[in-house]
From TrEMBL:
Pfam families: ComC_SSD, TIG
Signal peptide span: 1-18
Domain annotation ComC supersandwich: ranges: 774-993
IPT/TIG domain sequence ranges: 659-721
Protein name (Swiss-Prot/TrEMBL): EGF-like domain-containing protein
Length: 1066
């Protein structure tokens, strides 16, 4: 067991992977002996020892997998080294750094057995490089004395083309005077040399050395002014020429065709003064970098054009610039990709503004050691590094992109060098960061303003070190999207921001009493201008403040919103993020929450985001009152879950006074639990039929006007005074005087006068003579109509629209006399009459349109199966009320209209005496034809109207109330039935102005002696529901329910609510 343990220990710890194989050990042992420095090493003449790499790690490197040497660093005492001393090493690309060796003459030539070794020789003696160098990868020769390489040697190009690189560095005080000659031709072997860095007495021809890409020549002092061989450098990518004391003509003609040249470096080459703007680099389309130092008389003034679409870096030092032309003139061109500009020690004069405008791609600008002065523009904020002169006073204030990060920033202070008095403390209000994801590039992007000039200006939690500057001060990115939320701390101002690229999310919204919204969540922006909150068709909430988790904004249309939108879709838009849509209940002093329900609310209502519970199972017949968490039922429905029909009666077909079947048209739903109907106090039974739209029942004898009550499903509805027993025989006024004067139409109680010269309700008034012609005046502001004849004026106007509750008490009133009507007139033609059309919209209530038509010829109208004749000279008034919003389904409307009589102004009115007072007789609401007479100054205005309406296309009774009456006017209120569409047709009111007798003498005294002798008869027809019989007033009502939802319904759907589509409810 003990033996096994020792063996295991030896296997694990006793064997080193750095031990050389025996042949490699012997080879190295012999090399050390030949160097003459064996005393520096503990040598063992034992091929099995092989621990050089462990004992001397600074000198020898081993490859563990092969146990071969990879690197040898060895110093000699000037011993001679033969190639055979290295042939025994087996590793390809072995690196040999040899110091103070003397190489035998043919060391690098034919006969060695090197395996593509790389040599770095320091202060070694090399006798010849005149033959092709074999089996060597790269050769670096460092020397600090002239005789390392035989002076005035010539190196043919053919001797180096099998290398990959040749570097000869002269640290001595004298030139090596190496001359390169090109002995290649088209039959020469393939060249593999890539890099040539050397001191040279000439700029050699590189024809057929097509593999050379990098050339760095240090020109010896004996080199003549000849750079023409540069034309053969067609494959060279990097060209560096280090000068001497000779002057040269700038070789633009030799290099302008080098389209593959990427980098041009010219150091200490004294170019003779070229003509201004004579140097054109624009054909060198592959040129990426130009670096010129101490160029003599050459400067940017000499440059005509640069390859702006490829050049990214330009540097010139120790030159003389006469103006500030170079920055905007050379680099700010269309398509410019310049990133770095250095112009130092060039005497650039004038103001800092001569540097502007900068190219958008520029990131680095160094203009130190130039006599510049002026103000630092905010355009410099897009530079990652800005270096300004240190010995000049920079005027003005620092832009916020610099000042925000200036404190304790030694690099920024050293680069800008502003006067201390120009630095002001700033609170960094413009430092506004945002975060987003670019899915196309798979990048996380930090963007905003005053963010700093590189990623050292901030730290993040979670910590990452992979942020890359894209646009300094404005944008950074990282090539990953694995983290969506960061906290950024900007080091110098000491400000922290939490940002998320996952988009916004809202957890609560508080609505104050004044419409100030506080939105709580995450992923918001700090940038007010990048945040937009909209509701209700682009109505905006003005952003007051915004942070990562809180937005405060003000609604400017708050009152309208809270009236019209209980739960409105709102959209939060943040620049760079997807739109975030969510619902907000805009109730004052209300907090919206956004919770998920723990159970499925299917069939149980919907998930209340404020409580996380299922509420408002409204069965698709209502909406939810979010604050009270109850259903607000739609039209036709009642109850906690909107399952009870909200029935009503829209029209009544009543029997006569003897009793009989009653037909009630309306809406009664689909369920009829315990139904009953009452006409006044009498129960209407039995009920023969009950459906969604019709009830037919039997009522006993009675008379007069009654209310109707319908009870079903535990819900009662009453229509006040909507039932009128029909009289079997209707009496006419004064029995039409006698049988020779007129015949009574007992269906409607109307006299048909027999004698042509007698008219009036009872045919008793005689037409004595043709009266003077009257004229009609329509007020286009108020919509009132005046009929003027002689000194008498009759005025007709609609005055108010009232909403009455169940007790006939007004709860809403709309003044229709306000001068805000929209008016247009359509003039009469041969086939049509004059039309005056008025329209006004009452916000949130209704639209009212009425039309006044002047009747030029006698016309007949039929209403409710009764035909009436309307005489010429009449006026027909059509009134339409649409989209009225009821506060309750039990409420009704009353339209009030006024007729008045007065005296027109004359020239003889100075006495101030009042003429004869008008006498107005009342109407009888129980008669189907009611009469109104107004008597004044011997003239009688009389009229008739019918108390019927079409409700949902069916005739029904309507009542009228006298609202007000005095000596010269009467105001009547028309009570509309509960219906979806109502047509009131009081056109059958004939109003005539008749002379009572020939001997009438006015109580008004007048200077006109003929006034008391005027005897005339004037037939006048006034078109209003109360004081007109030969005109038509049509009132169409499309109403809102008590739930304030508009019903825009087709006529064919009026009687059957099952055909109503909810899409029609707006």
């Amino acid at each position: 067991m003990k033996i096994l343990f020792i063996l295991l220990f030896f296997l694990l710890f006793g064997y080193s992977h750095s031990k050389l194989i025996p042949s490699e050990t012997n080879c190295l042992y012999n090399l050390i002996l030949s160097s003459g420095n064996k005393n520096n090493y503990k040598l063992r003449n034992d091929s099995n020892w092989g621990y050089y790499c462990e004992d001397y790690p600074d000198n020898f490197k081993c490859e563990d997998s092969t146990n071969l040497l990879t690197s040898v660093i060895l110093k000699s005492d000037s011993s001679v080294l033969y190639s055979s001393s290295l042939n025994c090493f087996q590793k390809d690309n072995l690196y040999l750094n040899l110091n103070l060796f003397t190489f035998e003459v043919n060391f690098f030539f034919q006969g060695n057995n090197f395996k593509n070794f790389s040599f770095e020789l320091t202060n070694c003696v090399i006798y010849s490089l005149s033959k092709p160098i074999k089996n060597v990868n790269s050769l670096i020769i460092n020397t600090n004395y002239i005789f390392s390489i035989v002076a005035n040697t010539t190196i043919p190009i053919s001797s180096i083309i099998e290398l990959t690189s040749l570097t000869i560095i002269n640290s001595a005080s004298q030139d090596l005077n190496i001359l390169y000659s090109n002995d290649l031709d088209s039959n020469s072997g393939k060249s593999r040399i890539k890099s040539l860095q050397t001191e040279s007495k000439n700029v050699p021809n590189l024809l057929y050395a097509n593999s050379i890409e990098n050339v760095n020549f240090s020109l010896a002092s004996t080199v003549k002014n000849d750079l023409s061989n540069l034309t053969t450098y067609t494959n060279v990518k990097t060209l560096q020429l280090n000068g001497n004391s000779y002057s040269y003509t700038f070789p633009i003609d030799s290099i302008k065709g080098l389209t593959r040249l990427n980098t041009l470096i010219l150091n200490n080459i004294f170019f003779t003064s070229p003509t201004d703007q004579s140097i054109d680099f624009s054909t060198m389309t592959g040129l990426n970098k130009i670096d010129i130092k101490n160029p003599g008389s050459f400067s940017t003034d000499s440059i005509k054009a640069l390859p702006v679409t490829s050049l990214k870096s330009f540097s010139i030092n120790q030159c003389t610039i006469k103006s500030g032309y170079p920055i905007p003139g050379l680099f700010n061109r269309p398509g410019s990709v310049i990133e770095s500009i250095t112009i130092t020690n060039c005497g650039m004069p004038d103001h800092l503004d001569i540097l502007l405008p900068l190219a958008n791609s520029l990131r680095y600008l160094d203009v130190t050691n130039n006599p510049l002065k002026g103000t630092i523009s905010s355009q410099f904020c897009k530079l990652q590094t800005l270096k300004l002169p240190s010995n000049l006073l920079i005027m003005g204030y620092l832009p916020s992109c610099f000042a925000c990060h200036y404190k304790n920033n030694s690099i920024l202070k050293a680069n800008l060098n502003p006067a201390p008095t120009l630095i002001t403390t700033q609170n960094c209000t413009n430092l506004v960061p945002n975060l987003k994801i670019d899915t196309l590039s798979n990048r996380t992007i930090l963007y905003g303003s005053d963010l700093g000039f590189d990623s050292s200006y901030f730290v993040t939690i979670p910590s990452t070190n992979d942020w890359i500057v894209d646009i300094p001060s404005y944008q950074f990115y990282r090539n990953a999207t694995d983290i969506t939320t960061f906290t950024f701390t900007f080091i110098y101002p000491g400000i922290s921001f939490t940002l998320s690229s996952g988009g916004p999310a809202v957890t609560s919204v508080y609505v104050s009493n004044i419409g100030l919204l506080t939105i709580i969540g995450r992923g918001f922006s700090y940038n007010i201008s990048a945040t937009v909150f909209t509701i209700l068709n682009d109505q905006y909430c003005s952003i007051r403040s915004t942070t990562f988790d809180t937005i405060v904004c003000q609604l400017y249309v708050y009152n309208n919103i809270t009236k019209n939108k209980i739960d409105a879709t709102s959209i939060l838009k943040i620049s760079g993020q997807p739109d975030y849509s969510f619902n907000v209940t805009y109730l004052p002093d209300f907090t919206n929450y956004y919770l998920n329900c723990s159970e499925d609310c299917t069939g149980k209502g919907f998930c209340d985001r404020n409580s996380g519970q299922c509420i408002c199972n409204c069965h698709d017949k209502g909406s939810c009152d979010i604050r009270n968490r109850v259903c607000k039922c739609e039209t036709f429905w009642l109850g906690d879950e909107c399952t009870i029909p909200d029935h009503y009666v829209s029209s009544v077909n009543a029997p006569n006074i003897l009793g009989g079947n009653v037909t009630l048209i309306g809406w009664y739903g689909y369920d009829h639990v315990n139904p009953s109907v009452f006409i006044g106090t009498l129960e209407c039974k039995p009920i023969y039929e009950i459906s969604t739209s019709t009830i037919i029942c039997y009522v006993g004898a009675g008379s007069g006007v009654k209310s109707v009550t319908v009870i079903q499903n535990g819900h009662s509805w009453t229509g006040q005074n909507i039932f009128l027993y029909n009289n079997t025989i209707m009496n006419c006024p004064n029995d039409c005087t006698n049988s020779t004067m007129g015949i009574c139409d007992q269906r409607i109680g109307q006299c048909n006068c027999l004698k042509p010269n007698f008219v009036g309700p009872d045919c008793s008034i005689e037409v004595v003579q043709q009266p003077p012609k009257s004229n009609t005046t329509v007020d286009t502001n108020s919509g009132s109509t005046d009929l003027n004849n002689d000194k008498t004026k009759y005025t007709i106007k609609i005055t108010k629209l009232l909403e009455l509750n169940f007790n006939n008490k007004p709860i809403n009133s709309i003044d229709l006399l306000e001068n805000n009507w929209n008016f247009k007139k359509i003039n009469a033609s041969t086939e049509t009459n004059n039309f005056y059309i008025f329209n006004k919209i009452i916000p949130s209530k209704c639209n009212i349109t009425f039309t006044i038509e002047e009747i030029e010829k006698d016309k007949e109208f039929t209403f409710a199966d009764i035909t009436f004749k309307v005489l010429s000279g009449s006026i027909k008034l059509t009134i339409e009320i649409s989209n009225y919003t009821y506060d309750s389904g039990l409420n009704t409307l009353q339209l009030q209209m006024e007729s008045s009589v007065g005296t027109t102004k004359t020239d003889d009115t100075s006495s101030g005496e009042q003429c004869d007072i008008a006498n107005i007789d009342n109407i009888d609401e129980k008669s189907s034809l009611n009469y109104v007479t107004i008597t004044k100054e011997g003239k009688t205005l009389f009229g008739r109207f019918i108390n019927r309406a079409l409700s949902d296309q069916r005739p029904t009774y309507i009542s009228s109330d006298i609202v007000n009456k005095n000596d010269s006017s009467i105001t009547i209120g028309l009570n509309l039935p509960h219906c979806i569409n109502c047509i009131i047709d009081p056109e059958y009111l004939d109003f005539s102005i008749l002379v009572q007798n020939k001997d009438y003498i006015s109580d008004c005294k007048s200077g006109d002696n003929n006034n008391n002798e005027r005897v005339w008869f004037l037939p006048v027809v006034i078109v209003v529901p109360v004081v007109s019989a030969t005109t038509i007033v049509i009132l169409s009502l499309v109403f809102y329910t008590k739930y304030r939802r508009t019903l825009k319904l087709k006529l064919q759907s009026l009687m059957d609510p099952r055909t109503i589509k909810m899409n029609d409810l707006n």
